[in-house]
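I had to read the description of the data format several times before I understood it. In essence, backbone conformation is discretised, so a fold becomes a row of integers matching the chain in length. I therefore recommend that a typical entry be quoted early in the introduction. For illustration, here is how one protein appears when written out as sequence plus structure tokens.

***
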Amino acid sequence: MDTETRIGVDVGGTFTDVALLTPEGRLVTAKVPSTDDQSVGVVRGIEKACDDAGIDLAEVDAFTHAMTVSVNALLEDDGATTALVTTEGFRDVLEIGRQARPDLYDVTADKPAPLVPRRRRFEVTERATVEGIQTEVDESEVRALADDIRDAGAESVAVSLLHAYQHPENERVVAGVLREELDAPVSASHEVLAEFREFERTSTTAVDAYVTPAIDSYLGRLESRAADLGVPVPKIMQANGGIAPASTVREHAVTTTMSGPAAGVVGAAETATDSGDDLAGLVTFDMGGTSSDVSLVRDGEVERTTDAEINGRPIKTPMVDVNTVGAGGGSIAWVDSGNALRVGPRSSGANPGPACYGRGGTDPTVTDANVVLGYIGGSSALGGELSLDVDAARDALAGLADEAGLDDALAAARGVYRVANANMTRAIRAVTVERGHDPRRFGLVAFGGAGPMHAAALAESLDIETVVVPRACGVLSAYGLLAADQKHDSVRTLRRPLSGLDAAAVESAYADLEADTLDDVTDPDDAAVRRAADLRYVGQSFELTVPVGETFDAAAVEARFHEAHESAYGYRLDDPVELVNVRATAVVERDSLDVTYRGDGDARKDTREAFFDGAFRETPVYDRDGLGAGATVEGPAILEQHESTVVVPPAWGGTVGADGTLVLTSGGDGE
């Protein structure tokens, strides 16, 4: 059994979630409203969880954290005033980008404005090719450039020189001089992303520079508050699904862009992988207050990608492959110019929140629709402390009904529920059907404050027969933080034909990558290094990543690539294969979680009218934490807990597992 008391805290758009696990295996969860300064809400959540657990703050041995600081800066265009230094003649790469447009056939479609406007993009005389340095950089020119950057008011600097991924000597000089001359963080592309494709490398480096001051400031405040509480300095969840020391993250801020969603997927994999031997994998479905995140777990491994985009800005660092839609519990329902009902992406946030929160919000939201439909009752207490105003929810939906020409608040609530579900169904299809996976062979893992309310309805629309609702479903991202391993990634471009490949050169590149990743690991002796490679058929534009063994066996790697290509695209070719990038990931595994669960078996609370199959039905309401292991539930039913509510429609049934996980099976036609 683990001897640590662990605490995980995940900040969402509406709530801050906490999971605490004692050495005895007792799991305590908490949910508090998020705050403008996220560190304030984090402290409140830690104090609440420890108080509920009856332990002193000083007893916490490990603190892991996921936040939205960097992604919020990108979504809200609220990052640092950033400058870019690049090779002479390549000042506009960040703005030119790729030929792709937001709307292929709309010649007037606007691209997102570059993070760095042209007036803060500076050129330096230098030149490198893939063969080596042709023109060395002049340090005096860089020092003069530092004055211009300072005069431009830059709070952070990105440096991305041509071919620096292959020959970073000039870039090292530029970054070094700027760090001497400026009182501002400097992000260098060969340190952020040593990978070819100039636009993506420059974009990723600019993102790193853009969010670094916010991350540095936030972690500074959080570390200070943690010290005042007497809890350890936090380790931070990265977008790749692994944690890292706060000091490392402050040097690689771009790695935190999908911190919270990554933690949720890790938590889903930890709790639900063994829920069905006949399943091809798991679709993870996290519906929070602002958005819904969907991802895949296959063969027990979280799906990752290096081809992501946030608010139109490409980011090439490894991250959990998450598809996000703006449909959460707090998403606002509205009527467009064509009189069609829409849901999201605008959200009511934590304050004032949905109308039913009774904090002055008047906009109708998905949560308000669930209240009108009876899935959430007036006696429910979200987060264990927030009572609901049913009349306010009904009034908000009645106003929407008038605007949309619907009969009443119930008709509006039904419409909002269906539109929100349609948005989320499309997101699930995007990670399954559109990638060659049959969703009917997967289980759906539902979590987030609102996910379990919608999960069975989504499963029915996709012919998914198994829905898994973890015990800590309302705070599963926080739970995932308790389980996450430490991970550090490194990549290098090494473009070579796979036939006749110089094995010594490949092994040398891997040795350098392994050294880089182990430098970031807190316990190198406990780390295992995993190798991977990006390959493509010669002439293709994009690559597929395949695992590599302890030594690079070209024939075995080529066979894996053919299999991966056929799985992804439905065919394979006899064309020659090209190695493009080599990758290494250092992993320090944490002890597995050993959670005890006890239900007292006296779970029946009351009944209430809930809407199923076109009519209200008297529906039993259970206290989920009172259902013991082995207990069964037949739909229709509603299971309440502090952080979430599970809706079991008619023709569905559920069984509680030994760890408290609820597995719902079968299905019928519901709302």
